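User: Before I run my own analysis I want an independent prediction to cross-check against. Here's the chain; please return only the structure tokens and, at the end, one sentence I can use as a sanity check.
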Amino acid sequence: MTDTALTSLLAEDSIRLDCTAVDRFDAVRQCGAALVAAGAVDESYVDAMIQREETVSTFVGEGVAIPHGTLAGKESVRHDAIVVLRFPGGVDWEGNAVSVCVGIAAAGGGHIALLSQLAEILLDPEKAEQLRSASSAEQVYSLLTPDPDED
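Assistant: Structure tokens:
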């Protein structure tokens, strides 16, 4: 899993734009539930996501967090996938405001490749703002589609 397009890992029903969460752990659980609903992971992966969050915050900046499981949780991954959940009201993430969570599940070393691809998009302030304000699944797909003019 090195050059797989992010959009190929994202089912339309895995984009949820009007979520609310009481705290970051609730948001992580919702990302995990979306991955379970997509058939990408077993329920036990959600626990691995919570364990990761308890150990190291998955906040990456620009109002974005990328919840994912621990290395031990990779056995619960059925297939690589991402989910995008937007929290218009924001979620307190250890003092940081998060409005978009991109949950990821990847077998083997796939997490690194996914995180790298996501970082390129999400750490661009303009693209991150567009993702935070996206109002349709089509906008999310467009933002996650690689620009053929770049590279």
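Sanity check: The chain has a mean pLDDT of 88.
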